[in-house]
């Protein structure tokens, strides 16, 4: 209910029917919204980065899970995979900045190895055009999460036994991974991967600390519009919030329709 | 091949532990100028400052703890009870879809949309407002967590208690809660962590006046106070590390 109340107010504000500067019904904010292209740029940028992060994390997690399954599932080393999950996004962003900025730790390592002659030679990885800092930080956390998730499926779906069965009928290691292990893991974890993708798309702290000025990650772009001193920007921010909310509702509704969100209990 | 695999595993473990070690080094460094690889000098000065009167970190820690504990203690029992009703409802599919929305939306966008009502109620900039705002996210999260718990078996136990003459309170306290101990503990841990990690929503509804640890970290980063930012970050990481360890132990025992 609070969500719909918030969405209702956002809609009223975007049509000039509520808020400090409301002067009666107007479509002017929506006109600016559709003609400025700001939302599309931010959303597309966030969406592409989310896909890149998910793709890299899924590939790395699959490699770790297939190669080191026993280390992920059992023993003391299994606890290590939980460390990135204990790091809040804000701290993760701060860490990446301290490690990768031109005077950060890795720049110092590059200098001591004579790979660079000063901090200015070190490549821009934080607040950079390609958003490498955001990708590194998210991939670090997402890989830990997905590795634990995949390892759980590996165990629960008895994939090891299936692999032995496949070997006994003549499949080699490569075929087992391509036709048995990877399809089962990806099919079982598709809803969780999609939901995690939405979390990345909605993330705020990491792009706030490591992102570029333009285009901005969607949450940062909307929040900045709300916090600006220009009152004319607020209805525009509500337009962006409304459209973003409807996109998320659509994705969740689609997943729900395909029974990917919730399974009936036996 | 085995050596390469072992080496890669060692590198992987190194990468997982390195952030904590690096943060410790940052927090206790006194001077660490470029291009030095390790700090030139260490000091406990920043750490001891936490305990000084009027310390912002200590204040942030107390606020974060208070908010996380209240949010957890309210959200988990309430969601435990409500999720049972949701699971029994014929429209549960749509109710669950609604429960997914608050925590899949960006908390900061959600906070922006709700801010008007918080201003209207005079709740923005107050701890109570932040607690209420976080409950709006943590409560539906717990509904999702509990919903798969209400399976045929547990419902049968509940029906059996009613058949044997037990009232609703007895059903909850003598049957359902003992049967749900593990999932309840996981819910308590995870709710605490969501609240403990929260920044965007707290910053928006708290308008910078509710000083939590995540807000402190952000302020220290903006002030370029690296030592204090690292120390606050360490304090922010320690309880989740302990809880995740405990959570994992519980899950292992369950399996």
Top keywords for this entry?
heterodimer, A: 266 residues, mainly alpha, 70% helix, B: 255 residues, two-stranded antiparallel ribbon, 12 helices
Can you give me a brief rundown of this structure?
The complex is a heterodimer of chains A (266) and B (255). Chain A is an all-alpha fold and 266 residues long. Chain A contains 13 helices and no strands.
How would you explain this protein's 3D organization?
The complex is a heterodimer of chains A (266) and B (255). Chain A is mainly alpha-helical. In chain A, 70% of the residues lie in helices and 0% in strands. In chain A, α12 runs antiparallel to α13 (233-257). Chain A is flat. Chain B is mainly alpha-helical and 255 residues long. Chain B has helices at residues 2-27, 45-49, 56-88, 92-104, 107-120, 127-147, 152-163, 168-179, 181-197, 200-205, 213-222, 226-254, and strands spanning 29-31, 41-42. In chain B, strands 1-2 form a two-stranded antiparallel sheet. In chain B, α4 crosses α6 (127-147). Chain B starts with a helix and ends with a helix. The mean pLDDT of chain B is 83. Chains A and B meet through α1, α5, α6, α7 and α10 of A and α1, α4, α5, α11 and α12 of B.
Discrete helix count of chain A: 13
Q: List the helices and strands of chain A in order.
A: HHHHHHHHHHHHH
How much helicity do the residues of chain B have? Answer: over 70%
Strand content of chain A: under 5%
Rg of chain B is 22 Å
Termini separation of chain A comes to 29 Å
Helix content of chain A: over 70%
The parts of chain A where pLDDT drops under 50 for at least 5 residues are: none
Approximately what portion of the residues of chain B adopt beta-strand conformation? Answer: under 5%
CA-atom Rg of chain A in angstroms: 23 Å
Provide the residue-averaged pLDDT of chain B: 83
What is the number of E strands of chain A?
Answer: 0
The computed structural class of chain A is mainly alpha
Which strand order does the major sheet of chain B show? Answer: 1-2
């Amino acid at each position: 209910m609070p969500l719909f109340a918030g969405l209702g107010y956002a809609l009223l504000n975007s049509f000039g029917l509520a808020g400090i500067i409301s002067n009666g019904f107007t479509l002017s904010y929506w006109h600016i919204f559709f003609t400025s292209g700001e939302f599309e740029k931010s959303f597309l940028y966030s969406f592409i980065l989310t896909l890149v992060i998910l793709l890299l994390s899924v590939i790395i997690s699959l490699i770790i899970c297939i190669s080191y399954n026993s280390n992920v599932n059992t023993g003391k080393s299994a606890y290590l995979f939980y460390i990135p999950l204990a790091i809040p996004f804000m701290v993760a962003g701060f860490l990446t900045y301290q490690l990768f900025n031109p005077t950060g730790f890795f720049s110092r390592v590059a200098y001591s190895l004579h790979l660079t002659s000063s901090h200015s030679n070190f490549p821009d990885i934080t607040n950079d055009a390609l958003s490498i800092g955001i990708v590194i930080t998210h991939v670090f956390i997402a890989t830990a999460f997905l590795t634990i998730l995949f390892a759980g499926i590996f165990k629960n779906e008895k994939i090891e036994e299936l692999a032995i069965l496949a070997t006994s009928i003549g499949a080699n290691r490569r075929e087992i991974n391509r036709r048995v292990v990877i399809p089962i893991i990806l099919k079982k974890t598709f809803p969780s991967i999609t939901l995690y993708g939405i979390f990345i798309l909605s993330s705020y702290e990491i792009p706030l600390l490591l992102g570029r000025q333009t285009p901005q990650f969607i949450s940062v772009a909307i929040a900045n519009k709300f916090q600006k001193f220009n009152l004319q920007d607020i209805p525009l921010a509500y337009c962006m919030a409304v459209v973003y909310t409807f996109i998320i509702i659509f994705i969740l509704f689609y997943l729900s329709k395909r029974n990917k969100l919730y399974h009936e209990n036996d | 091949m085995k050596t390469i695999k072992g080496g890669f595993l060692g590198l992987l473990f190194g990468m997982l532990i390195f952030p904590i070690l690096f943060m410790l080094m940052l927090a206790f460094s006194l001077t660490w100028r470029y291009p030095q690889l390790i700090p030139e000098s260490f000091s406990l000065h920043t750490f001891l400052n936490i305990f000084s009167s009027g310390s912002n970190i200590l204040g942030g820690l107390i606020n974060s703890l208070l908010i996380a504990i209240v949010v957890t203690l309210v959200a988990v029992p309430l969601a435990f009870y409500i999720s049972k009703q949701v699971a029994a409802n014929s429209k549960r599919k749509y109710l669950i879809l609604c429960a997914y929305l608050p925590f899949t939306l960006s908390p900061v966008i959600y906070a922006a949309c709700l801010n008007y009502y918080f201003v209207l109620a005079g709740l923005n900039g107050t701890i109570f407002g932040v607690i209420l705002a976080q409950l709006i996210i943590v409560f539906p999260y717990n509904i999702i967590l509990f919903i798969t718990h209400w399976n045929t078996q547990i419902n049968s136990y509940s029906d059996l208690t009613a058949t044997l003459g037990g009232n609703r309170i007895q059903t909850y306290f003598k049957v359902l809660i003992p049967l749900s101990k593990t999932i309840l503990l996981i819910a308590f841990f995870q709710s605490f962590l969501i609240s403990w990690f929260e920044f965007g929503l707290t910053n928006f509804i708290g308008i910078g006046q509710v000083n939590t640890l995540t807000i402190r970290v952000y302020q220290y980063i903006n002030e370029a106070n690296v030592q204090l930012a690292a120390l606050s970050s360490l304090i922010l990481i320690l309880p989740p590390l302990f809880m995740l360890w405990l959570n994992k132990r519980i899950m292992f025992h369950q399996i």
